[in-house]
Write a structure and sequence with these properties.
Layout lengths: L3 H13 L2 H8 L3 H15 L4 E4 L2 E4 L1 H28 L4 E7 L4 H15 L3 E6 L5 H7 L5 E4 L8 E16 L9 E2 L8 E4 L8 H7 L8 E4 L3 H9 L4 E5 H7 L5 E6 L4 E10 L6 H11 L6
Parallel strand pairs: 3-4, 3-5, 7-11, 8-9, 8-10
Antiparallel strand pairs: 1-2, 5-12, 6-10, 6-11, 6-12
Length: 297
């Protein structure tokens, strides 16, 4: 019969590559580990790994078990953690996944009052996911996902909590700084600076340039918002960011927001969570606070 410890062994072998390292990670002897898997292989009627030199390589059957392990083991760990917190009298940890680089400064406006109101609840913000944000949410690695681009899928719900305008950011001396808006063709000779995200997932491309068959002179990426805006203010290029974020940095940098197209591009920050679950009161409170941030940014 397939049991949890079998999945833990498959996961450890995939992660560490050798029987010795997997056994050490699980605090088992190699013989115990091998014996457990041999019984499983007898039950399944198929080998789950093959030797490749000193390392072990999962077979097709083993890969199937690994996929199950990656989905199920985090749920075991999450449930055990909740039970331990209840036993210890703790409220818990709100694990937030981020799929929005510029959303951090918005998130801080929510986290600060949340921590004040819920002193027994910790907040953990994560950005790197093994399966992407959706996989992390469905796999119980996080409790909620913050994203401006929700991918609706069975088992998930999204709530829009904050509307904003996505704008072009230019230095004050830029020719378009005093225009009411820019057209896609206006960017043909520009250096566009963005976060290191696939172009297809960037609104400046997917909703503005690409539909018009337009492009830019050069596309470069920078990870941090502050350095990106410093580069823009120094005339090294233009960028595209939420208008509220640009307006905050206008206090210290000579930059200007310019509307993208005559009608502009308007977005919503969404909070995604697993559907059909009884949400703890602190998660519902966080969502309510998020909806009240318009006057804070």
């Amino acid at each position: 019969m397939l049991e949890r410890h079998h999945l833990a062994i498959i996961h450890a072998v995939d992660k560490h590559g050798t029987l010795t390292e997997a056994a050490n990670a699980l605090f088992l002897t190699q013989s115990a580990l091998s014996h457990g898997i041999k019984k499983l292989e007898g039950y399944l009627g198929a080998p789950v790994w093959q030797k490749d030199g000193r390392r072990l390589r999962l077979t097709q059957a083993g890969q199937g078990l690994l996929n199950l392990a990656n989905r199920v083991l985090p749920q075991f760990e999450h449930t055990e953690q909740l039970i331990q917190q209840i036993a210890q009298g703790q409220r818990g940890t709100l694990r937030i996944g981020m799929e929005c680089h510029p959303c951090y400064q918005w998130l801080l406006k929510v986290v600060s009052p949340f921590l004040m109101e819920y002193p027994d609840v910790d907040v953990d913000v994560r950005q790197a996911f093994q399966f992407g944000g959706l996989g992390a949410l469905l796999g119980y690695d996080i409790d909620m996902l913050i994203t401006p681009d929700p991918l609706f899928q069975k088992g998930l719900e999204y709530l829009p909590v904050f509307e904003y305008e996505h704008v072009l950011v230019v230095p004050e001396s830029h020719p378009t700084a005093k225009q009411g808006y820019v057209s896609p063709q206006d960017l043909s000779n520009e250096v566009l600076i963005t976060y290191p995200v696939e172009a297809s997932r960037l609104d400046i491309f997917s909703q503005f340039l690409t539909p018009a068959g337009a492009g830019v002179k050069k596309h470069r990426t920078i990870e941090t918002t502050e350095i990106m805006l410093q580069m823009v203010s120094a005339g090294r290029g233009v960028s595209a960011l939420p208008k509220w974020l640009v307006e905050q940095h206008q206090k210290t940098l000579p930059i200007m927001p310019v509307r993208l197209g005559e009608k502009g591009i308007f977005k919503d920050i969404h909070v995604g969570f697993r559907a059909g679950e009884t949400r703890p009161d602190y998660l519902s409170a966080f969502i309510d606070m998020a909806k009240q941030t318009h006057h804070l940014v």
